[in-house]
Design a protein that fits this description.
alpha/beta; Rossmann fold; 2 domains; six-stranded parallel beta sheet; 16 helices; binds 6-O-phosphono-alpha-D-glucopyranose; Glyco_trans_20
């Protein structure tokens, strides 16, 4: 563990999960997220440190190394998990930032906890950052950290990246703490968004609500500092996914899945965190109606829906889980036959290998969020289809729709439109699906997550180049 770091990543979660080891002790396992894959090489080249919450309420955790990565845990109390994480982050900000798909709740104690926890993260970062270091703060849970860092350590180069959408001014304006959040973000030198629309929303709000001068993607502060707000669409480790999809284990597993589902049936697939932004019920409804109307037959088609448990103590997530349970039960009760349910529903999380096997086994991947910053599942599916086969039905409200233009794009609020797209994708001639998949694969393989990290860090070092040290590119 280095005493001080040139690069500090600050994210709500550490890139490892707590696991019970066979010898009875507790250890860590690298979580499958793409972020750590992207940042791993640049962390190593810069003696980087990652600051984050390990999940749970353990409070006496010391900084540690995991497979060469230096990790600094930040503890949360039971109350903070309720107020900062489940409350302010996931029952206030999450719905507001996703088009108010669910009703946001506003509680002043939640906000106080958000401020306290953001300060804890900022103080930890300051402890480990060397003079002139780069600190890269991630996501909606930590929007106050940039300005807190700047107040404590003006020598730092500070980047912030929002992984979820940044809402239009009309929705953001509902937040009682809107000004504090904007000011928190303005502590950064570079504020990154998934889409240029998010960056524009931010700049407009800064002009309207904070009163700073702006021009295009720049904000001019009275103290002479300039901040840039721009889009950096995130991606995945595309080569890594392709390699996994080609592996013997995954090939074998994909064949097993096909066999279990019935070789002659075509497979629709949805894989999501169980979240109300993902439009899970609407897409299942579209599929079920097609079966009901006889346009699809359960002997020819099955919908496999994987919903990964998420934020299970937040009320809206519990309500959604019950709704899906009921809906799937009813559809299978009404439309299934013995041994051939219409929907095969799995409420569970799976390792990357199993996901890759599912992607390979699927004929039609269905990704229909009401609003999504990017949606990496869509990109993972494309990366795994090295055979150029498979169709993608994709919501136009996912960030990924901007790049994956050859998908069957749908409006998830329009059930009839989704039904048509599902049918078209189901009946599409191979020539058509191949042409579309090839084009999408070129996009996904060309712009991977390493390119994303590089372009953000380069963008960060171009602002006020005289200030702070420059992050070194990874050694090759
Ligand atoms: C989204 C957010 C991440 C978050 C992840 C999982 O992708 O952008 O910040 O970590 O969901 O959610 P969780 O609440 O389990 O961290």
């Amino acid at each position: 563990m280095p005493d001080s770091a040139q690069l500090v990543i600050v994210a709500n979660r550490l890139p490892v999960d707590r696991v019970d080891l066979p010898d009875g002790t507790r250890g860590w396992r690298r979580s499958p997220g793409g972020l750590v894959t992207a940042l791993d090489p640049v962390m190593r080249a810069n003696d980087g440190v990652w600051i984050g919450w390990p999940g749970g309420t353990e409070s006496d955790l010391e900084p540690f190394e995991d497979d060469g990565l230096s990790l600094v845990p930040v503890s949360l109390t039971e109350d903070e998990i309720e107020e900062f994480y489940e409350g302010m982050s996931n029952a206030t900000l999450w719905p507001i930032y996703h088009d108010v798909v669910a009703k946001p709740e506003f509680h002043r104690e939640w906000w106080d906890s958000y401020v306290t926890v953001n300060r804890r993260f900022a103080e930890k970062a300051v402890e480990v950052a060397e003079e002139g270091a780069t600190v890269w703060v991630h996501d909606y849970q930590l929007q106050l950290v940039p300005q807190m860092l700047r107040d404590l350590r003006p020598d730092l180069r500070i980047g912030f990246y929002l992984h979820i959408p940044f809402p239009p001014a009309e929705l953001f304006a509902q937040l009682p703490w809107r000004r504090q959040i904007l000011e928190g973000l303005l502590g950064a030198d570079l504020v990154g968004f998934q889409m240029s629309g998010g960056a524009q929303n931010f700049v407009r709000l800064v002009r309207q609500r904070v009163g700073h001068k702006t021009h295009r993607d720049l904000v001019y502060l009275p103290d002479g500092r300039t901040i840039r707000a721009a889009a950096f669409p995130i991606s995945i480790d595309a080569e890594g996914f392709e390699e996994l999809a080609r592996s013997e284990g995954v090939t074998k597993r994909a064949a097993e899945i096909r066999e279990a589902l019935g070789e002659e049936r075509r497979v629709f697939l949805g894989i999501d965190r169980l979240d109300y932004t993902k439009g899970i019920v609407a897409r299942l409804r579209a599929f079920a109606e097609l079966v009901e109307e006889g346009k699809l037959d359960v002997d020819d088609a099955v919908f496999v829906q994987v919903a990964t448990p998420s934020r299970e103590r937040v009320e809206q997530y519990r309500i959604l889980r019950d709704e899906i349970d009921r809906f799937v039960g009813r559809v299978n009760g009404d439309l299934g036959r013995i041994g051939t349910p219409a929907i095969s529903y799995l409420h569970s999380s799976y390792p990357r290998e199993e996901m890759a096997a599912l992607y390979r086994a699927a004929d039609i991947m269905v990704v229909t969020p009401y609003r999504d910053g990017m949606n990496l599942v869509a990109k993972e599916y494309v990366a795994c289809r090295y055979d150029d086969a498979g169709a993608l039905v994709l919501s136009e409200f996912a960030g990924a729709a901007d790049e994956l233009r050859q998908a069957w794009q749908v409006n998830p609020y329009d059930i009839n439109g989704m039904k048509s797209a599902l049918l078209e994708a189901f009946h599409a001639p191979e020539k058509d699906t191949t042409r579309r998949m090839r084009a999408m694969r070129r996009t996904v393989l060309r712009k991977d997550v390493a390119a994303w990290a590089r372009s953000f860090l380069e963008g960060l070092s171009e602002i006020r180049p005289e200030h702070g040290k420059t992050v070194r590119p990874p050694r090759t």
